[in-house]
Amino acid sequence: MLERFYGLSSAELGFISPKGETTTPIDSTVQQVTDFATWLETTNVGAGTLSHLDSKIRRIAREAVHGAPLPCFAQADDLLRRSLRLITEGRQYLPQTRELYVITGKLCAVMSWLSSDLGKIADADAYGHTGAVVAEQAGDASLIALVLSAQSKAAFWEGRYAEAGEYAERGYAVAARDSARVLLACQQADAWQALGDVARAKQALTLAQHARDDMACAEQLGGPFECGVARQANYGIAVHLRDRRPDHALTAAHLAERAWRGGEDRAYGTWAQVRIGAAIAHLMSKDVERAEASLRPVLDLPADHRLATLTTRLARQVAPILHSPALRGARPALALVSHIREYCSPSGSMPSLVSG
User: Fold this and answer.
1) Whole-angstrom Cα distance, residue 79 to residue 53?
2) Nearest residue to 350 via CA among 15, 88, 25, 115
3) Which structural domain, as residue segments, surrounds residue 38?
4) Which of 34, 134, 211, 307 is the most exposed place for a label (fewest CB within 10 A)?
């Protein structure tokens, strides 16, 4: 009946095989699904590879706060290229692809952070954007928080303070209960104090302490996204300086030093910022000698450790005080200005992120 209705033979309709062939549409479909199952079971990574990649990114993150940024960046770049090749040139089980996305997102977060230290904010923004995309695709809230922290840093050091605060607020809302959540609250405080909103900055510092008291899990990555007591105190220094309370700032600096003496890991960037903050507090009290003593170890850092964030703060906050009418022309102030100028010179350090 169907032959008459369609005007086709039984062979053409697939009811019988033409010329002795035995393949039917059903057979063809069976072969397709069998091939598909075989394809699904194919992967270009194993559990060992994924574990190795995650271990390497954690090691790079730790080294990022202790070593020169450029070699760490190069290591992260090599690892990122490998991760991207695995994703784009092969296939994995869906959970493995997600894990590769998380590894890629962590690398982007670290590379964004290091790009800011190297004075390359456009690059930091690019890595931050890519990290945000893969974090969203992976559906990993704690990774989203890490990327937002890196984006907040890049925005802050380019003078986009409101944007920096918004990134940090969003990150805090989704962060795991590790010290990265403390950091995100501190980054809010830094952004608000830079905008002159001291009251809001103090609220953020209180939020940071609540986050520390509420910590309940291991670090999701650590390194630049880990915030110990000393680092938390460093952000407090900035708020106290904005509030014109140099004595409070020096108390916070002493708290940081006590934490390090007590065995807390010391990231040299945080250490340098604490000493710069203490120097500013001394300068606010017209004590150039103590300011110089605080800055001297920072100014003696090797060139490959002279982060753009450090040169920027020296140029933006310390130099103007030394050029103020109260200190201008004083021999100790002139000597310190000369040392800072040498430290910030293109041949001696990384570029400043903003002028002024």
Assistant:
1) 8
2) 115
3) 33-176
4) 34
Tokens 């697939």 belong to 14
SS3 content of the chain, % helix, strand, coil (to 5): 75, 0, 25
- What does each of the 356 residues of the chain score in pLDDT, given as a tens digit? 545 555 556 555 555 555 555 566 666 677 777 666 655 656 778 888 999 999 999 999 999 999 999 999 999 999 999 999 999 988 888 899 999 999 999 999 999 999 999 999 999 999 999 999 999 999 999 999 999 999 999 999 999 999 999 999 999 999 999 999 999 999 999 999 999 999 999 999 999 999 999 999 999 999 999 999 999 999 999 999 999 999 999 999 999 999 999 999 999 999 999 999 999 999 999 999 999 999 999 999 999 999 999 999 999 999 999 999 888 878 889 999 999 999 998 766 565 554 33
Domain assignment present for 67: yes
CA pair distance 100, 83, nearest whole angstrom: 7
Tell me if 107 is assigned to some domain. yes
Is the residue at 204 inside a domain?
no
Q: Is 116 exposed, middle or buried (0-12, 13-18, 19+ CB in 10 A)?
A: buried
In a domain, 48, yes or no: yes
